[in-house]
Amino acid sequence: MKRFRLNRLPLRARHIFAGISPGTRIARGALRFRPPGFVAHPDEPVHAHAAPELFVILEGRARLRLSDRVEELRAGDVILAEPNENHHLEIDSDDPAVYVFLQLDPEP
């Protein structure tokens, strides 16, 4: 997992995440609103992808549970889950959150 701040991303001509992510294409993604206490993929003990996945927290607070630790997230955080890295996003119990997730195509 790599952590960045949205306002400190390196500027690149291709797209905003070009300086921190492999490849040049986004395979899929969405803008999500989640209520307080929401847990992504609660029935999956392991949730991972073959390609990297970016999370951009736009509003609220959340946690990203990884195999070996928990990262506290807030608005402006950009998190890159590495390929095959187990991860679960949990929204703070007091506040809703708005975030973007992007599954990246690692091919150039």
Share of residues in strands = over 45%
According to DSSP, the number of beta strands is 8
Poorly predicted spans: none
Our Rg estimate from Cα atoms comes to 13 Å
CATH fold descriptor: Jelly Rolls
Biggest beta sheet attributes: 5 strands, antiparallel
Secondary structure tally, helices: 0
What is the assembly state of the chains in this entry?
Answer: single chain
The average pLDDT score comes to 87
What CATH architecture do you see? Sandwich
CATH uppermost class: Mainly Beta
| Gap between N and C termini | 21 Å
Strand order of the largest sheet: 1-6-3-8-2
- Whole-number total of structural domains: 1
Overall 3D shape? globular
Helix content: under 10%
Q: Could you state the CATH homologous superfamily?
A: Jelly Rolls
Series of secondary-structure elements, N-terminal to C-terminal: EEEEEEEE
Please state the structural category.
Answer: mainly beta
